Amino acid sequence: MAELTFKSAGVSLREIDLSGPTAIGPTGTPAGVIGTALRGPAFVPITVATFQDFVANFGNSDGKKFGPMAVREWLTNAGSATYVRVLGAGDGKKRSSTDGDVTNAGFTVGEQQVQSNGIVGRNSYNGANDIVNNSVGPLGRTYFLAALMSESNGSTVFSAPRIQTSTSAVPILRGVLMAASGVVLGLSASNLLVTNNTPATNKNGYLTFASSNGNAGSQIGTVVTASAKQEFALLINGLKNSDSYSNVITASFDPQAGNYFANLFNTDPTKIEESGHYLYAHYDVAPALASIVGTGVTTTVGTASGSFALLLTSSQPRALGLASNGTTTLGIPDFESFTDRFQNSFSPWVVSQKFGGQNQNLFKFYARTDGAAATVEAKITIENIQASTNASNKYGTFDVVIRKFDDIDVQPVVLEAFRGLSLDPTSDRYIAKAIGDTNTYYDFDQPVGKQRLVVEGDYPNVSQYVYVELAQGLKDESIDPTALPVGFRGPYHLVLGGTTIGGGGNILTGSTLDPTDTLGITSAVMRSVKEPAFPMRQNLAVGLTPKQVVQPALTWGIQFELNNDPNQPNKNQKIDASLVSLCKYFPSFHTSELNAWVGDNAGAAQVGGTTVDSDLYNNNFFTLERVEVITQSNDRPDPTQWAVAAYRRNGTAIGSINNTDNTSKGSRFLDPSKDFGHLPTKQYLKFTFPMQGGFDGLNIFNKDKYEMTNNAVHREFSVDVSGQGGTSGPTVSAYRKAIDVLTNKTDADIQLLAIPGIRSTSVTDYAISAAETRFDAMYIMDIEQQDDVSAIVTGSLQNVSVANTTSNLQSRALDSSFAAAYFPDVVITDPATQTNVQAPPSVAVLGAFSLNDRVGFPWFAPAGFTRGALGTVLETQVKLNQDNLDTLYSADINPITTFPGQPRPVVFGQKTLLAAQSALDRVNVRRLLIDIRRKVRQVANRFIFEPNRATTLAAFQAAVTPILAAVQAQQGLDRFSVRIDTTTTTQADVENNTVRGKIFLQPTRSVEFISLDFVVTNAGAQV
User: Fold this and answer.
1) Which of 7, 483, 715, 921 is the most buried (most CB within 10 A)?
2) CB 627 within 8 A of CB 668
């Protein structure tokens, strides 16, 4: 605001509006909560002041995850909370130096799954006896469903990306399927010489196959194209027919058909055993753009020919990893081993215009959210690209817009926008400054004991969604200052075509299907399967020629809207579902072989005859320099002719374009040196691209492991015989690693620790030890519940036994004043979903602790009708009587119960798990000492490096005394004494640079038992 200047006497009035909302910073010492979340970084402690801040970082509660519910309860009355999100990190150790995989991380396709009893079995959904017969039937594999296709109706869907270079049909990837353990997939081949089209079924819990013909079906399947049905049949060998799932599925390749295979195949990974298969990815090709035909391809088997589909697997044995023929590495991708820890999604490199014939990398984006959720959360548009017109400053400007992944160009949903950015490192709008380039992560790839949080980058993150990585040329300022963002490198893609590195065989081949199927399709066809190209915006026009008009809202680059009309590619306003699959994670972590999924490899040589260079693969590289425009006589783009401007994916300009009047006009590619300073052109200089590769690092086929529940922890630690047991189990390791993060005082300052819903001793004992190590935080523990037969409760159908639950905890012989246990579960309403949820007690108890601290102090008891009232709790899972209350309290378990006449349950106990009788066997006393220790430590830090003299000792004592006096005045202490002088600090201490002191405390105890005698007297007695 400009300074007021008075030139003559008078009164000046102005308004200063400070009524707008201001950011609320965290206050007080936070509670530390560990749990799952919808989004956000993993294993990085984030402190928030409000639940709105929590939602911005981690997403809302969803009625399933207890961590967000606990944070909400705590923040109802508290000023800060620290959250650590967990994801899949395998055994928590560094990845293999041999092959790059992470032990126990992710999943392996077709692996035997752990059942509810902790035992593994092959497709044991259909029977428990298969643990006895687990040598029968193969393990499942990853299958690639392709159709022989040829572009039609004048479309260039295959020719522009150089997938189809002649009239011959090409095999186009349409789906990626994963088979359950004990299941073999095949295609019906009714018009081929295949005599066995009846799938083998699973009987009595194990597989039986037809002895004469083996598994039913073929790697080649017939497609019925009559009446444009595009139908084929998937045969699921090893699956027993049920009411829900059949072992024969007849589906269509037509995305518009009701029986489109993506609508019929199973898309829930947790039901892979029930259905025998899981559709991991699918790629839609509109029938208007391409047909399923066998043109130009030998498709004769005996006397039959026609339209065909392929169902192929890797030619190497299942999940082999390092594929070798005994002497050399074969270089065949492993499509089954997704054994990687979590990772965040990332964009391709954004590139500059050509300098010396080469586009230079400028920057790329990474999601701040770890895991798969970020992949479909946001996309990025770069717009308003403007070259400099200032001779003294050659840097141009541009905008970065973070948009919702599934919005459309004409109705964008902007999540964040950063305007007027620059590549000038001296500018306040330098892209790294404006968006942020800080990457905070937990470094698992260090030896245990040296793992820690790492912070990399020069500028704090401003964006909630992404951070920026700068190319080295930008960092060292070797890139021409006139550089502008004009495109992006080819995204990551699957490696499906070609042969092994040694040329010994195809990368893809058929599995062990019907031996009578003598292939008529050549081997060359088998090794030319291609992933569909990323759809590029062909033009900015809407309507039919000659009435096309430009739609300035459309962006170049990846076209997220579905193109199913070769004459009007921008007609449809529905999102192309294939983009989710094109952005999905596939294995890319192998360090010593050809990966299944490759990218960021411009200039890479062909491998086994297949293109792996992501720029060249399907011509997926994009640049505005390939947009061909009609020019005026001054060689500027004609602002009236943008409706006929066209993107040339192959990089070859036609040289002339028919204008809107259908007369031929001279044309050329956009030239940043000429056109990017031309204002009428500016509104059309924008492009959009996605991010790829987010991965949770979890076993998607096991519901408990995927949701990281206590059941998974319990089974891994207690009964899992899959080789992922003990403390190396992925779920156990994740929670223990998160505890490690919060144990480090330099990374997080907390006063309470909670891991809502996790009750297994493998984690809770570790948390108690961590709280004792910190010595300044208390652990609120959820205990294991047992049923009437002393079995651990793992489901809602089991009755909870108070006696057996109590006995189980007592048998653990816990002895710590830094932990307190509560029972039973409670029912609360999740405000986000408006559903009633059975939640572990720690969720509600955190609310009681925060209420206690708001109306009182930490040294007050967080229990009773005043400070232990649970206003958001509807009821308790177990109704407790007086005997139950006595049983629980005698075992140091704090009950949550409801009393007659009271509307809501209350916490009715405050014992710690300390075995001996002591003042520290009460929660309020332990919290008193934690609070005093924290305050005294803060004072002590001020005296570090001061002279070790009597005056310093006296000053130290004088600074500590008022702290304790204030606690005493607030009813926390009965008496205290502080002694920091020459009697506690000897001359030997002085010579060792040490100050010693003693603080004597007598805590004020709370009233927990009231005994009153009611005496009935006769009329003559004196009262």
Assistant:
1) 715
2) no
pLDDT tens-digit series, residues 524-583: 777 789 999 999 999 999 988 778 899 999 999 999 999 999 999 999 999 999 999 999
Residue range(s) defining the domain that contains residue 771: 31-89+697-924
Tell me which DSSP letter residue 26 carries: P
Place of tokens 């050549």: 522
Asked whether 396 and 422 are in contact (CB, 8 A), the reply is: yes
b/e for 755-767, b at 16 or more Cβ within 10 A?
Answer: bbbbbbbbbbebb
d(CA 649, CA 658): 19
Tokens of 484: 């502008």
CA distance 660 to 658: 7
Containing 82, the helix (H) or strand (E) segment is: strand 81-85
Share of the chain above pLDDT 90, in %: 68
> Model confidence at 476, in pLDDT bands (50, 70, 90)?
very high
Tokens of 951: 């005056």
pLDDT over threshold 60, residue 708: yes
- Taking only Cα atoms into account, the Rg of the chain, rounded to an integer number of angstroms, comes to 34
How many angstroms separate the CA atoms of 833 and 381, rounded? 32
Contacts of 1015 (CB under 8 A, 6+ apart): none
Tokens of residue 106, six digits? 């992710």
Check whether residue 222 and residue 356 sit in a common domain.
no
Cα(254)–Cα(262) distance, integer angstroms: 10
DSSP reduced 3-state for 33 = strand
Do 800 and 749 fall within a single domain?
yes
Torsion of CA 450, 452, 456, 461, to 10 degrees: 180
Cα–Cα dist 418/816, whole Å: 51
Q: Are residues 705 and 851 in the same domain?
A: yes
Q: What is the pLDDT averaged over residues 396-412? A: 97
N-terminal to C-terminal alpha carbon distance within the chain: 78
Q: Which helix (H) or strand (E) holds 939?
A: helix 923-941
- Of the candidates 589, 553, 51, the one whose C-alpha atom is nearest the C-alpha of residue 342 is 589
Give the span between the Cα atoms of 845 and 207, in whole angstroms. 50
Note whether residue 112 is domain-resident: no
For helices 51-58 and 66-75, the axis angle rounded to 10 degrees is 150
- Are 766 and 799 contained in the same domain? yes
Instruction: Check whether the bond before 546 is cis (ω within 30° of 0).
Output: yes
8 A C-beta contact, residue 135 and residue 122: no
Q: What is the DSSP letter of 36?
A: -
The pLDDT of residue 81: 97
CATH code of the domain in which 865 resides: 3.40.50.11780
Q: Do 908 and 974 lie in a common domain?
A: no
Residue 817: which of 934, 937, 910 has the closest Cα?
A: 910
Q: Give yes or no: residues 38 and 153 share one domain.
A: no
**Is 577 within a domain?**
no
914 and 964 share a domain? Answer: no
Model-level pTM? 0.92
Q: Residues in the chain, how many?
A: 1023
Position 205 scores a pLDDT of 43
- pLDDT interval class at 500 (50, 70, 90): low
Average pLDDT over the chain, rounded to whole?
88
Q: Helix, strand or coil for residue 16?
A: coil
Q: Are strands 290-292 and 184-187 parallel, antiparallel or unpaired?
A: unpaired
CB-based contact 171:297 (threshold 8 Å): no
808, pLDDT greater than 90: yes
Judge whether 510 lies within some domain: no
Q: What's the one-letter identity of residue 868?
A: G
The secondary structure of the chain in percent helix, strand, coil, rounded to multiples of 5, reads 20, 25, 55
Number of separate domains in the chain: 4
**Residue 81 DSSP SS3:** strand
